[in-house]
Amino acid sequence: MNNQEKSPKFEGVICEIPNIAVDYFHDLTSKAFFLSHCHADHMQGLDSPKLIEYLHSQSGIYIYSSKATKNILQNWPKYEPLVQFIKIVELNHPTQVKMTNENQLTNEKASFIVTLIPSGHCIGSIMFLFEGLFGTVLYTGDFRIAQGDSKKLKAFKLNPHHPDYGFKSIDHIYLDCTFCYRNAKDLPMRDECMELIFTHVKDWIIKGPEFKIFLSLAARFGSEFIFVELNKRLGIRVHVSKLKYDIYKQFPEIAAAVTLNGKDTPIHACSDSNKCSLKIPCMADRGLQVRPIRPTTQWHLYKNISEKNAAVKDQGFIRVLFSMHSSLEEIQDLIHCLKPGKITPISKPDVILLSQIEDLLKCPVQFPKTREQTSVPHHGFKKRKVN
User: Fold this and answer.
1) What is the pTM of this model?
2) Residue 204, CA distances (Å) to 21, 92, 220, 293 in order
């Protein structure tokens, strides 16, 4: 497409709820923070010393997340100082968030209910459903929910015990529009992609001990399904880095599928970088026959390849289509189910116009608001006295 539309980046602003920030941690005026999952583009400012200082200086301000996300962060050294400020919210359990005012008193009028809904993207990933005097607002974060499954989610229903009562009225959805375009109409589910990965792994490693697999991953988390399935089918553990191993120990099914010993396995995913690489980081190249497999989506869509058997040899890699984001049809299914009043994309390709998203989703679409557009004068913060 020739027409381009530069969209403002999502800066954690939920217009209906002043003084909160979602997946954005640079704004040190927020009275509550929310973290949907542990991918870098949703963790901006989370490792900032200024955030730690701010949280220490205040009372009653927390980062709300799923239990799995907290488990990841408390085993990730640079985020350990944050753990005391992370408040776990049970999945599918409406929970009150009590906002405080400048005098550290609870402001009941500004308080609201939040429900965490599994989003199917990666370990611990969730959606936030906000309900209060402002109405009902859904923040999807990054999500992958199969077509037809949106209507099964209890949190969306007026009364989970009476499905015939229908769905809640959603005023506004802050939506993952990563693949909200026609090239991504129908993406294979992960179990279909797994068949292809399994075949390429098995056919290679049976050739001999010098034949190795390197899983070159585009994101730090999200490929654990591959590790677990390879272990189930082949009885082989996947070598991962110490950082990932220490995190995966908190999740028994994943822990059983990975190892710290790179010498005992032909399958490696031991890089902590998301850069394309043909080399296994823990091994010298001499005498090895390495088959690098890179699960990707954007590359396939750029090449207009979206079939479930899409494994393509490219510059030394075998690229397998493996999506952690919903296809266009899956996004349309969610919107058709919830019928929101309007949509704000939290991510979208610049080459896709808002008007095109409106046409595809049959719903009004607007740009995300920036922090400057919604900010109030900020005079810094004072450290809270410790008694």
Assistant:
1) 0.91
2) 47, 43, 25, 11
Say if 106 falls within a structural domain: yes
For residue 368, give the CATH number of its domain. 3.60.15.10
Task: Indicate whether 181 and 37 sit together in one domain.
Answer: yes
Helix (H, G, I), strand (E, B) or coil at 341: coil
Torsion of Cα atoms, 83 then 371 then 109 then 170, to 10°? -90
Q: How far apart are CA 242 and CA 376, in angstroms?
A: 43
The answer to whether residues 35 and 142 touch, using CB atoms and an 8 Å cutoff, is no
| Residue 109 phi, psi (nearest 5) | -65, -30
Specify whether the CB–CB gap between 292 and 263 falls below 8 A. no
Average pLDDT score over the chain? 90
What is the residue range of 147's domain? 20-185+326-374
Q: What is the pLDDT of residue 363?
A: 97
What pLDDT is recorded for position 3? Answer: 53
Helices and strands: H and E segment counts in the chain: 10, 17
Tell me how many domains the chain contains.
Answer: 2
Sole residue written with tokens 């890699």:
317
Encoded amino acid at 353, one letter: L
Is residue 359 pLDDT above 50, yes or no? yes
Nearest-angstrom CA–CA distance, 118 and 124: 8
Closest CA to 133 of 10, 18, 12, 13: 18
